[in-house]
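--- STAGE predict ---
source: upstream dedup step, 1 unique chain passed
mode: sequence only
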Amino acid sequence: MAFDITHAEADALARDAADPLASLRGEFLIPRHDDGSEQVYFCGNSLGLQPRATREALLAELDDWSNLAVEAHFRGRHPWMPYHEFVRDDLAALVGAKPHEVVAMNSLTVNLHLMMVSFYRPTPERSAILIERGAFPSDHHAVESQIRFHGFDPTSALIEIDADEANGTISADAIARAIDEHGSRVALVLLPGVQYRTGEVFDLTAITRAAHAKGCRVGFDLAHAAGNLELALHDSGCDFAVWCSYKYLNSGPGAVAGCFVHERHARADLPRFAGWWGHDQATRFRMAPEFVAAPGADGWQLSNPPILALAPLRASLSIFRRATMSALRAKSETLTAYFDALVREQLGDVLHVVTPNDPARRGCQLSLRVKGPREAGRSLFEFLTTRGIVADWREPDVIRAAPTPLYNRHIDCLRFVLAVREWAATRG
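--- STAGE serialize ---
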């Protein structure tokens, strides 16, 4: 049956009109295409859009700096001394943690290294780190360098779980088998919440339970999960987690990252790299040489919180607080299902959806492979750009498109599909 574009557009617009979260889009600055129209921005999994409140939040800190100088640490509208605490409750709610289990600090890979100082404690008998094959390169670089730093050889101490499903995804059974087979020599299991290339969601609780049963420590990279999924880090029981905030958390390029440390480690005498800001607040200003760690995740801080980086995060988290992660996830499931169905029904001869079809196994990202040579995929990607549709490309042959519930709409998904149909028509 022919595709009725007029009916499809009316249907998409009706869905958007009925969306209870539709007004959130107005809180973001949508980039414009060359023709002046708003872009279809499906790249929130790489860099989230700027909230309108960000500029005011930054200007407020600049004003306090100009008017109060050092006194702004204590007298500012949001005093700088405890500034990281202003994002704590919202950050904890976002990732399903207790407030003292989270802290905003540094950048993702820095936090990953700091966590591995404490939670990757290899011995000759248990020296390995277990990751997925095809992990994001920064994670791979970090774990390999940690293994070498401790005097072990990555060729034997870095274990990678192979994809066992047709689309290059990894089944829960494959993860469980790898933990069962190698667990006795694994010091740390480090997996993502969402695999960056395929968009596949991993079951954090099941992984943690299996790994702990084998005596392994467990950490997660939530770069593509924080602000995308409803997380329950505390209940999962994992030892630690790290994430960035420039993707779904819309806090700007190179934004300050986040870190979770389970409360059972809150007062543990763990090895760590220490800094003055991680010292217990009650005695920090005594300036004694002995380090006394602040309880909870705060104890892993090193330096002053970066105020001008935290201000955008505070502005963005206020939107999440009002929207609630449960409502955003509900919209995400509906919106992504609509997008997925359109792609499969209308573009089945052009695109192959790599991301699992099961909503429980995906977030808002669809990873799409063009049926044809790599050159065809690049051609489509570049064509979409000329039509004001912003997705991203991941080698060797994947276009990632993420309909983000904070600011994307059903009509955006339809515009993507119509543009692909246009491209396909030009190729005969």
